[in-house]
């Protein structure tokens, strides 16, 4: 996902949507709901602003929200060798992934770099979905398939997810799909339909809250699905929102392309080391990653905290991090957490400064210097008790 953007000013309040970017099946509904700014993500329009982000943050924490996340483009892998091929793409051991199960995975390059960090769903025995972060990883998978010598098909089907997130999301989903929804475990799925609309429901989301993603398999029914969600959510004050940056950072969720890129490996990102799983099968980047595991890394992406009031600027670009007045790293994200009542984000630092509580200073876009400290990730709920609930 991308950071929330400010609303258009009066001088630039007209939105123009060119034909060269994709529109989701929910696009017209987001416009009608008051979305006034869009980001570009995976060559699609992503709703970026409806209302005050702080207001939307509390709506997510206390009620139920709906997000058009069709930009999570789906790469589908099928064929007799689909399982072996999908396992070739990632450092996670997919031999332990059952039909109907999902996993957060890393797609790795030959040097151990992170190509993408999608949510993976095993929809059928030989049918796998990768819900992509912002990159052309579908082309990467097609390229690998061309030379893999396996009987496999890689394509991007017309499948579009929408997220329903927040503590009352269960009530909305039960109203639509019945009690069967309550049986979906965290990172598992249910294949079903609603009024003839075929969907796959996963117990996943970009929030660290209780939530679901509904994968629409008939794009002609996008408006129908949106209306049914909004009607079922009326008793719970459901509202569309943009991706909630503060909540995802609290939960230790990363944004591919800004927090990490293909130039970074999993051992450099706090918390992602666990995803390089020992396994017998070979995969792209295995030798490089095992060598990195043995020798260690020289830098790390960790948390950063800036105490006090909300900073008087919006971090729209990366900024320098200093230690004892010397530039040592880069802040990738920084945002006010209403619940923690401090500014939190992520920072790249040398490995010797990666421990929690290391004093830093950040150089704001306006040139100001602000004291900060490194922190552990996630900032809240390290055992994921909330989304598991």
Under the CATH scheme, the architecture of the largest domain is 2-Layer Sandwich
Q: If you average the pLDDT, what whole number results?
A: 95
Number of strands: 21
How far apart lie the N and C ends?
Answer: 24 Å
Q: Please report the number of helical segments.
A: 9
Assign an overall shape: globular
What does the oligomeric state look like here? single chain
CATH superfamily of the largest domain: Probable tRNA modification gtpase trme, domain 1
CATH top level class name of the largest domain: Alpha Beta
Strand proportion = 25-35%
Radius of gyration: 21 Å
Helices and strands, in order, run as: HEEHEEHEEEEEHEEHEEEHEHHEEEEEEH
What is CATH's topology name of the largest domain? Gyrase A, domain 2
Class by SSE composition: alpha+beta
Helix share bin: 10-25%
Q: What count of structural domains? A: 3
Largest sheet: 6 strands, mixed
Give the uncertain stretches in residue-range form.
none
| Spatial strand arrangement across the major sheet | 12-13-14-11-3-15
């Amino acid at each position: 996902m991308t950071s929330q953007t400010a609303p258009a000013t009066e001088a630039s309040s007209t939105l123009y949507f060119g034909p060269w970017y994709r529109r989701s099946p929910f696009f017209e509904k987001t416009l009608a709901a008051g979305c006034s700014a869009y980001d570009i993500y995976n060559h699609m329009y992503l709703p970026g602003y409806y209302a005050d982000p702080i207001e939307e943050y509390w709506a997510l924490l206390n009620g139920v929200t709906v997000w058009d996340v069709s930009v999570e483009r789906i790469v589908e892998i099928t064929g007799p060798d689909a399982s072996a091929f999908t396992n070739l793409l990632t450092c996670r051991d997919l031999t332990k992934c059952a039909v109907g199960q999902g996993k957060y995975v890393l797609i790795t390059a030959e040097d151990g770099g992170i190509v993408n960090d999608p949510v993976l769903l095993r929809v059928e025995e030989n049918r796998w979905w990768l819900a992509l972060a912002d990159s052309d990883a579908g082309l990467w998978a097609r390229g690998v398939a061309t030379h893999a010598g396996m009987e496999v098909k890689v394509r991007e089907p017309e499948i579009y997810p929408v997220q329903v997130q927040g503590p009352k999301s269960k009530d909305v989903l039960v109203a639509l799909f019945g009690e069967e929804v309550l049986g979906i475990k965290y990172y598992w799925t249910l294949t079903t339909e609603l009024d003839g609309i075929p969907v796959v429901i996963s117990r996943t989301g970009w929030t660290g809250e209780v939530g679901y993603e509904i994968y629409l398999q008939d794009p002609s029914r996008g408006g129908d699905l949106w209306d049914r969600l909004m009607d079922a959510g009326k008793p719970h004050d459901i509202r569309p929102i943009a991706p909630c940056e503060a909540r995802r950072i609290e939960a230790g969720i990363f944004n591919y392309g800004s927090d990490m890129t293909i130039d970074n490996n999993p051992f450099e990102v706090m918390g992602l080391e666990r995803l390089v799983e020992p396994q017998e099968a070979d995969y792209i980047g295995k030798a490089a990653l095992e060598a990195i595991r043995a020798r260690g890394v020289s830098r790390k992406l960790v948390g950063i905290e800036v105490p006090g009031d909300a900073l008087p600027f919006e971090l729209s670009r990366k900024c320098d991090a200093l230690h004892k007045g010397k530039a040592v790293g880069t802040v990738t994200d920084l945002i006010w957490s209403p619940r923690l009542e401090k500014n939190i984000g992520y920072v790249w630092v040398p490995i010797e400064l990666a421990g929690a509580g290391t004093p830093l200073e950040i150089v704001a876009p306006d040139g100001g210097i602000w004291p900060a400290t490194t922190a552990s990730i996630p900032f809240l709920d390290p055992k994921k008790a909330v989304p598991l609930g």
